[in-house]
Specification:
about 200 residues; alpha+beta; 2 domains; four-stranded antiparallel sheet; 7 helices; 4 strands; about 60% helix; about 10% strand
Length: about 200
């Protein structure tokens, strides 16, 4: 595939992405994607979309989360407007459509790589955000534990009491499993903090 073709296709894909006002979620419309992927007839493209939905379900995902049936108004040659069916697609849905498209088309070959790379980028971004949130939560938890530990030491006079109280708190939080039990369940090192291995919402 020629470099100028790749550059044009990349530019076209980037310019057809839309962003949902309330959530900021990006999406594509199937009618736009149809043209970008070199399909002349909507009826033929719908078959590819249907195969992509099946692939989505087979992969263990709910197709409704990635393929949303919508309608939009188009202007006819006479100037009148008519409502037509369309589908709002997530990036993952676009990737599946490309995977199920006609591999002899240059547009499909490009899209398969494009959406695979973009989907991976999104996964890495989401992973990084989760790591930042975990670190922020961990810092706040550490500060709270230090404050609580100081109060307990003032009142009781030893540091072991804090560990005992925290373990009791974990037991209440995790259905009777104390800190040691949870570490064994998660198969984590004894010298690591339990919070390092739990989802942010647990703390």
């Amino acid at each position: 595939m020629k470099k100028e073709v790749i550059t044009k296709l990349h530019s076209n894909f980037e310019h057809t992405v839309k962003v949902e006002d309330e959530t900021g979620m990006e999406f594509w419309l199937a009618r736009d994607l149809q043209d970008l992927l070199g399909y002349v007839r909507w009826e033929n493209f719908v078959k590819v979309v249907s195969k992509a939905k099946t692939s989505c379900v087979t992969a263990g995902y709910d197709a409704d989360d990635h393929f949303l049936d919508v309608t939009k108004m188009v202007t006819l040659g006479s100037g009148a407007q008519r409502e037509i069916a369309d589908v709002a697609l997530t990036r993952y849905a676009c990737y599946l459509i490309a995977q199920n498209g006609d591999p002899s088309k240059d547009e499909i070959a490009f899209a398969q790589t494009y959406f695979a790379v973009q989907t991976r980028k999104q996964e890495l971004i989401e992973k990084r955000i989760a790591e930042v949130e975990r670190l922020d939560t961990r810092k706040r938890l550490t500060a709270s534990e230090k404050e609580l530990s100081g109060i307990i030491f003032e009142r009781v006079g030893d540091q072991k009491s804090f560990g005992h109280i925290r373990s009791k708190g974990d037991a209440a939080l995790f259905g009777g499993l104390n800190t040691k039990d949870m570490k064994r369940k998660l198969n984590m090192p004894e010298n690591r903090a339990l919070a390092d291995f739990l989802p942010v919402e647990n703390y």
